[in-house]
Amino acid sequence: MKHRLPQLPYEMDALAPHISEETLRYHHGKHHAGYVNKLNALIKDTEYEEMSLEQIIHQSDGAIFNNAAQTFNHNFYWKCLGPKKTDPSEPLLKALKETFGSMEAFKEAFSQKAIGHFGSGWIWLVIDEHEKLQIQATSNAHTPIEHHLTPLFVCDVWEHAYYIDYRNERAAYIETFWMLVNWEYVSQIFEGKEHLRLSTTLPLCNNPDDPMCEYLDDLSHQDMTSS
Ligand code: MN
């Protein structure tokens, strides 16, 4: 099974001026694509070749883990953002208030965790093993799904996510991040209406002898390099 770079759920310039088209072209078309391509190269002819992304994350380590987890994390990150202003649903807002005191207090705690995180990583809102909301930071490629927690949304704090637009000012990127959160998507996961369908394999094309699969492979490769 080959893993695919998913298309962005919006246009490359849709998040500007907060996140520029140039950032999205590099972040999606170079960094994210790079993880997907490396993953495919690393798993070829190994026990991981037929596994889903989630299975690879749970069973691998080293470079295979890093590239699988980075693929997963980015697949999720893009879906957590959007150009449209949205708000958390009533049930999610209630849970955020119960856990953090207020929406403002939640944003402040999340922002502080993001600004204070040392080095590369990801800041998450998750549902933990006690069904409670929790802010978590993970370093490098690490991801809460390693521990079977449910991510609700994530902020990428690797420098490649903000360096073109904000240079070293991570705090400025975090501030802008709040204007882009797709609360509709986040609320749907919280309410169980949306599952984390983040595997990017296309099981229809498992058969290497099928010429249609070869054709689709070529098409997706063109998509990947032109974006
Ligand atoms: Mn990234």
Structural overview:
This protein has about 230 residues and is mainly alpha-helical. The protein has a single domain (about 15-225), classed as Iron/manganese superoxide dismutase, C-terminal domain (minor pseudopilin epsh fold). Helix content is about 50%, strand content about 10%. The protein is built from 9 helices and 3 strands; from the N terminus they run αααααβββαααα. It has a 3-stranded antiparallel sheet with strand order 2-1-3. A hairpin with a 5-residue loop joins β1 and β2 (about 135-140). It is globular and about 50 Å long. Residues about 200-205 and about 220-225 have low confidence and may be disordered.
Please state the average pLDDT score.
Answer: 90
CATH superfamily: Iron/manganese superoxide dismutase, C-terminal domain
Question: Which ligands occur here?
Answer: manganese (II) ion
**Count of helix runs:** 9
Distance between the termini: 22 Å
Please compute the radius of gyration using only Cα atoms.
Answer: 18 Å
- CATH architectural arrangement: 3-Layer(bab) Sandwich
- Helices and strands: which structural class? mainly alpha
Domains, number: 1
Low-confidence stretches: 202-207, 220-227
- Sketch the topology as an H/E string, one letter per element: HHHHHEEEHHHH
According to DSSP, the number of beta strands is 3
Give me the side-by-side strand order of the main sheet. Answer: 2-1-3
Strand content: 5-15%
CATH fold name: minor pseudopilin epsh fold
What's the CATH class label? Alpha Beta
Q: How many strands, which pairing sense, and closed or not: the largest β-sheet?
A: 3 strands, antiparallel
The coarse silhouette is globular
Binned, the helix content reads 40-55%
